[in-house]
Amino acid sequence: MKRKSSFVLAVFAAITLAGRLSTPAQSDDPSIKATTVFGKVSQINASAGQITIKTAAGSVVVANVNEKTTYDRMPPGETDRTKAVKTSLTEITVGDGVVARGFVAADRKSVPAQQIIVVSQSDIAKKQEQERMEWRRRGVSGIVASLNPAGKEVTITSRSLMGVVQSIVIPITDKVKIRRYPPDSIPKYSEAKPSKFEEVKVGDQLRALGDKSTDGTHVAAEEVIFGTFKIVGGTVTAVDAAANTITVSDLKTKQPMTIVLKPDSVVRRFTMMFGGGMGQGAGAGGGGGAGTPQGPRPAGAAPPAQAQGPGAAGPQGGGPRPGGPGNMADLIERLPTIPIGDIKIGDMIIMSTLPGSDQNRITAISMVTGVEPLLQMLAMRQAAGGQARPQNVDLNGNFGGMFGGIGP
């Protein structure tokens, strides 16, 4: 019984922190088992003794409770039942994570609950914020530049606004927890799959949590999370707000490409403003560059006096990256978000994606529109006497780290 309970709680902890899954039929919903239902509270009818549970896949199950039902509250992610505290129906609120235990009806739409195990919405939010703060404080991120199979070391690089490249070496010991984001998905901290050093490839984007060496060139990682991300750019040729898709002409190939915007996709607009410069932020964080304002900086970016603060989000949304806060991806994550309706035909966009099998239909993780001035600036810096054209910009090299704005 103890082993079974631990399994139930472990699964429950994963599901309550997870995002949306693909939507199977209710009969195939993995959150509905013969004796358990996992999900979130969507409605409570105390007088009727009913708790309506919505699973991560969207199925709805009614848990019928009575005077014999027991109620336990667990801390988020905890699997030790000794940490549970007794609670009651009146203390459960809509949005709380919940497991209802009992014999589920044949139609899988109701369960007479013998036990209700709950994780409060506020406790989940508090835990997520603590994790975000930890990744801001002790996290690094960049593109995998090289691998040392003999020593199991990964070297990542990041580029500041002024083009300064910084490298960080990360040993992957047996004690490092390593996970990978699956393809064609929005990266969610809780949905990353267990992985190993041998699955990391040059060009992957990677984040690591751990203690940095004094000179900042090495990180003793406790956790590593990575994915085969790609940064793409293009000019918007069509917007279908109803279908949440846009069509772009690929910046490099000029071929049409459909971009799908899911509820967790983050869309921002790049706006230039004068009086505090990009160059100063890059110099402060990147170990090089100018120390005085040099022209425009993006609206929403931290002013120079705040340039050495932490990143803007958690494992999926930020954290200090190699090269410091003057890094392109950090800058982008400070820009204000906009709805899909604000994207216009003719806008130039860049976006991060985890490509699946269909290279012409991809899911946006983090998208920025109105980036033509930024790409032109990068093209001029990169041209070195050649043609300064946005399509020549090394998107992965400049914007690696655009994981998106999603917390753990």
Describe the structure in your own words:
By secondary structure, the protein is an alpha+beta fold. The chain contains six helices and 24 strands. It folds into three domains: 123 residues, Beta Barrel (OB fold (Dihydrolipoamide Acetyltransferase, E2P)); 89 residues, Beta Barrel (OB fold (Dihydrolipoamide Acetyltransferase, E2P)), CATH 2.40.50; 170 residues, Copper binding periplasmic protein CusF (OB fold (Dihydrolipoamide Acetyltransferase, E2P), Beta Barrel), CATH 2.40.50.320. The strands form four sheets. An eight-stranded mixed sheet has the order 5-4-8-6-1-2-3-7. The N terminus is likely disordered.
Name some characteristics of this structure.
408 residues, alpha+beta, OB fold (Dihydrolipoamide Acetyltransferase, E2P), 3 domains, eight-stranded mixed β-sheet, seven-stranded mixed β-sheet, 32% strand, globular
User: Can you give the helix content as a percent range?
Assistant: 10-25%
The spatial strand order of the largest sheet comes to 5-4-8-6-1-2-3-7
Q: Total number of β-strand segments? A: 24
Strand content: 25-35%
User: What summary fits the major beta sheet?
Assistant: 8 strands, mixed
Backbone CA Rg:
23 Å
Q: What's the architecture of the largest domain, going by CATH?
A: Beta Barrel
**Structural class of the helix and strand makeup?**
alpha+beta
SSE topology string: HEEEEEEEEHEEEEEEEEEEEEHEHEEEHH
Q: Count up the helices.
A: 6
In CATH, the topology of the largest domain is named OB fold (Dihydrolipoamide Acetyltransferase, E2P)
CATH class of the largest domain: Mainly Beta
Q: Kindly state the mean pLDDT as a whole number?
A: 77
Number of domain modules: 3
Spatial separation of the terminal alpha carbons: 31 Å
> What overall form do the CA principal axes indicate?
globular
Which residue ranges are poorly predicted, with pLDDT under 50 across at least 5 consecutive positions?
A: 1-23, 274-325
